[in-house]
Amino acid sequence: MTPAEVTQQDLFKACESLFGTDIDVSVEFLRYLKPAGVRAAYRKKAMETHPDRAAVLDGQADFMADRFKEISLAYRLLSEFLAAPEKYSLDEQGALYRRRRTRPAARADAAAPPAEPLYTGRIPARRLLFGQYLYYAGRISLSALVKAVVWQRLQRPSVGALAQSWGWLAGRDIVDILRERRYGEKFGECALRLGRLSRRQLAELLEKQKRLQPKIGMYFVERKILTPAELFQAVVEMKVHNGKCRTEGSGDRRPRF
User: Fold this and answer.
1) Inter-residue contact 15 to 125 (CB < 8 Å)
2) Checking phi first, is residue 92 left (phi over 0); if not, alpha (psi -120 to 50) or beta?
3) For 64, which of 54, 72, 146, 196 could close a Cys bridge (C-beta 3.0–4.6 Å)?
4) Distance from C-alpha of 41 to C-alpha of 26, rounded to nearest angstrom
5) φ, ψ for residue 90 (rounded to 5)?
6) What are the tens digits of pLDDT across the range 206-239?
7) Residue 27 vs residue 188, higher pLDDT
8) pLDDT value of residue 88
């Protein structure tokens, strides 16, 4: 597949294959995705889907091989796109990433690109997750938010792994759920639809997964984007903001992470 043939949907699906369906992939997400994040996601997914694990999961080797090919293709697609972003122009209307003319090399003494601007609009009148609040409050850039979300998602256990460790799903159940999952459907939603998990079980798994994943604020402190004092102040401000928002989900919903 040549760059001119790559559609937005192809790249969105590749991101879903590597990062899971609980991240709302958007044009902004693709713009700020970095090779290091793609490589880390690929390594994790490759370990989970390698055909050699079929015996461990009590699954069918051919299905696991197909899943591994899907992950490998997603990795190659995103790697090729990120390797030369200057050769592409995002056409948001036509939903195509088209090859564009190569520009002359920049002069060595050219000024460095300006820092990424921060959000300066009004904070949406709805409940926000902490990372979202930091972005809308002008504390972090959109690029930093995307990196933090990817970092957080890569370090938390999957719903399937938790369910298997608790004895609620067998290896064959996981394989069946992965096979029957619809495009855009989360693993837990598919397990619920197929009757492999109850609503109570799924709720407990999601709560456990949430507790095990690192706090997103750690990302900004470790990389000195925010000081601990600034982080604490932002948490207080977010709680005040969310306390004023009685209706969840109203107002602007961009960007969604």
Assistant:
1) no
2) alpha
3) 54
4) 17
5) -80, 115
6) 999 888 888 899 999 999 999 999 999 999 999 9
7) 188
8) 58
